[in-house]
Amino acid sequence: MGRIYYYSTNNKAERATFEQALMNGLASNYGLYMMARQDIPKLAADRIKAMKDMTYAQIAFEALNPFLSADIDEASLRAILDDAYDEKVIPTEVQRVTGKSHIMWLTSGPTYSFKDYAARFFARALNYFLRKSGLRKVVAVATSGDTGGAVADALHGLDSVDNVVFFPQTSITERQRRQMTTLGDNVHAFAVNGDFDVCQAIVKRLLGDKAFAGELFGDADRFTSANSISLGRLLPQAVYPFFAYSRVADYDEPMIASVPSGNFGDMMGTVIAREMGLPISIILCGVNENREFPEFLKSDSYVVKPSVISPSSAMIVSNPSNFARLIDLYGGHVYDQRNESGQVVREGVMDKEPDMDAMKRDFFSISVSNAQHYETIREVHDKYGVVIEPHGAVGWRTLDTFLKRQHDRLAVVYETADPGKFPDDVRKALGITPEAPERMARQADLPERAYRVDDEPQRTKDGSAQLSDKQYETVKAILKTIF
After folding, report:
1. How far, in Å, CA of 239 to CA of 270, rounded?
2. Nearest in space to 236 (alpha carbons), one of 113, 69, 45, 84
């Protein structure tokens, strides 16, 4: 297999190996690393059928080795994946709920979130390359809920890595927060006055601020990312649908994938799997009240609006980073316009339209209202005896809407977090409080360490929050006290 090179969604002339892309985090000109559609490797049907008898780690090798073989030798990659996806640490279950509709529970890893899957691969791959090169990195992460805890847990205690993680002060649960703030050591959590988009803007600006990294570390390339921005997070998300299909398919019917979507990492991973040859008939992309994507599919116009608070807190994203990758794959271009200091002055500028006809064939997207989150949790519990949480509720509601409640087509909904991570929402819907998962219960009594960024974000005319220069200066000042 030949080497795959990755370019920036904002600079097609860039050519980076997987190792370079992983180390850099953000591509040139504030773009995201992406591969050309024709370079996405294809898996033969018989290779996909053989996955029926494989473990998750073995399926991950089949899906990822075509991308990584030129950068990581086979024995090392198998060792990375066997460690990352040890079934004693991170078991994965696909449950039939009704008819041909299933739930894939990506919820039993160390932080009880689907984010564990990509984070564990990312951390081990990064450690592999750092050991080879003798380098050190600071992994900068923004989180709307689950990413921060998963990445922090995966990176905690690694000798060659520091982690700085930025989370909104008010829109994550206490249990989610404590997964970041109680670790200590090489994990440094920042509570930010703003929404996820503000946190994401901090990370993007840090990754692009080579002068500050040079000043602080004597290494302009010290920062990298583990968000969905990172290619090292994106590729392992292509494994989920292969695993799901291996557990549900009779190999005569393509699968519907219903993916609750915020920053579009899971959705983009599912797109890649389909491009590799996995028989997915359509991708359902349910969002909460941040409805930019379904409105885009209806109107052909992409308009970023202020973020709307929602029970599915990890999906409170009005301008998904991975949208740039999706638009690129379909022949278009979207970017965030910036001023000379790197601050975003206009989000979601689309200067080249993608193939809208193809996108409308390949995707179905709706917005699930806040009230419908709770209605769906109740319906699934009352009808099927299954307890889901707000993100899974978006996925189920979207599938229900698409199928018109006739569950006679092969389908898998991604459930992305343990209901115990969202006790207040489950109690509001069902009148019962789910137990806290074991590790989260222990963290409830541990001391916290968090740095606060209390400065006001900048407000646009429509009320949307954007990273302010004062906030960014505060972040830099805190980092100078840490390192």
Report:
1. 8
2. 84
Cα 368 to Cα 213: distance, rounded to the nearest angstrom: 41
> At 267, which helix (H) or strand (E)?
helix 265-275
Stretch 315-335: mean pLDDT: 95
Question: Distance between CA 392 and CA 377 in Å, rounded?
Answer: 9
> Could you tell me how far CA 230 lies from the centroid of its own chain?
9
Could you write out the DSSP letters of every residue in 349-385? Answer: EEEE---HHHHHHHEE--BPPHHHHHHHHHHHHHHH-
**Can you tell me the distance from the alpha carbon of 98 to that of 412, in angstroms, rounded to the nearest whole number?**
11
Q: Which of 227, 256, 198, 218 is nearest to 396 (CA)?
A: 256
DSSP lists the bridge partners of residue 363 as 283
261 and 286 in contact (C-beta within 8 Å)?
yes
Q: Which of 107, 168, 453, 115 is nearest to 316 (CA)?
A: 168
- The Cα–Cα gap between 72 and 59 comes to 17
Task: Name the phi and psi angles at 469, rounded to 5.
Answer: -60, -35
Do strands 93-98 and 101-105 pair parallel, antiparallel, or not at all (unpaired)? Answer: antiparallel
278: its two tokens: 């996995």
Token duo for residue 164: 């700085």
From its phi and psi, is residue 321 left (phi > 0), alpha (psi between -120 and 50) or beta? alpha
In this structure, what token pair is assigned to residue 101? 């509709």
* Tokens 């988009």, located at residue: 197
320: tokens are 């998904």
**Res 1 pLDDT > 70:** no
CA gap 373, 425 in Å, rounded: 9
pTM over 0.85: yes
Q: Do the beta carbons of residue 336 and residue 413 sit within 8 Å?
A: no
**Percentage of the chain modeled with pLDDT above 70:** 99
Distance (Å, rounded) from C-alpha 204 to C-alpha 207?
A: 5
Please report the beta strands in 237-340, taking only residues with DSSP state E, as ranges in sequence order: 255-260, 280-286, 333-338
- pLDDT 10s digits, 228-287: 678 999 999 999 999 999 999 987 899 999 999 998 999 999 999 999 999 999 999 999
* Helices marked H in 100-226: 115-133, 146-155, 174-181, 196-208, 210-217
Tens digits of per-residue pLDDT, 170-224? 888 888 899 999 999 999 999 999 998 899 899 989 988 999 999 999 999 899 8
Spatial strand order of the sheet with 411-415 comes to 93-98, 101-105, 411-415, 255-260, 280-286, 363-364
Q: Which tokens in the block code for residue 34?
A: 């992406």
Least Cα distance to 118 among 265, 315, 280 occurs for: 265
Helix-strand-coil percent breakdown of the chain, rounded to 5?
Answer: 45, 20, 35
Return the pLDDT at 314.
85
